[in-house]
Amino acid sequence: MNLYNPHSIIKVAHRGVPSLVPENTIASYKHALTLNIDMLEIDIHRTRDNKLVIIHDPTTDRTSLEKGIIKNLTYKELEKYDVGKWKGESFVGERIPLFEDVLQLIKNVDIKLLIEVKQPEKYPGIEEQILKSIDENGINEEQIIIQSFNKKSIQKFQALRPGIKLGVLIKKKDKFISKSTIRKIGAYANYINPNYKIVTKRFVEAAHQSNMKVLPYTINDKQAAHDMLAIHVDGIITDYAQSLEEWLEE
Ligand code: G3P
Ligand code: CA
């Protein structure tokens, strides 16, 4: 029995296609754009000289052979870091992208950008700055969804730009999230995106009752994808965007 319509599932390439190409690099995003996906997910931090950059961790330690703390480095210093080599010689030369580079990459492409604002509490004014950059790069807000674990930051986005689509991320440790908390989030967010290990049918129903979509992260095998679809989540965030179609066909 078909429990879902594979065409209506929102397919999200998490940090590009990190199972094939180093995460959060332009090469990884370009690869994602060749696949049948609906959204591209990226992570934002800010440099010492206030440049918005795309990297998951607050440091370069995991994804570069050189150590560094993003908020303590200028972009000129940071752009020297190679974020491809740690995954193999064939990726040497990949650089930490600027947010505006990604905006230009997705401009006029039929895909949505799911922007995760990392630790916004460390970067005062980052909400205004992100919105300004979206506007200055001529991106229609219809193409954007902004998400964060930080609810206050998401509420600030809502106050600044009521029309833009927003998401709240939920950690695994928040397994016992109540229906009333979900309802409160639904007052300002359009998506509630939990660690897939805590998603239940009741969670999904509560989110839908509050008019939110559910995009669980990070689903990296077919069984987990099928388990999620059986409880009617709206999409799948994965490191294996190249496998999604195959997973959804069966
Ligand atoms: O998009 C959801 C997911 O990216 C959140 O967790 O740690 O992979 O950024 P993380
Ligand atoms: Ca993320």
Automatic annotation (TrEMBL):
Organism: Mammaliicoccus vitulinus
Lineage: Bacteria, Bacillati, Bacillota, Bacilli, Bacillales
One Pfam family linked to the record: GDPD
Designated name of the protein: GP-PDE domain-containing protein
InterPro entries reported in the protein's UniProt record: GP_PDE_dom, PLC-like_Pdiesterase_TIM-brl
Domain GP-PDE, residue spans: 9-248
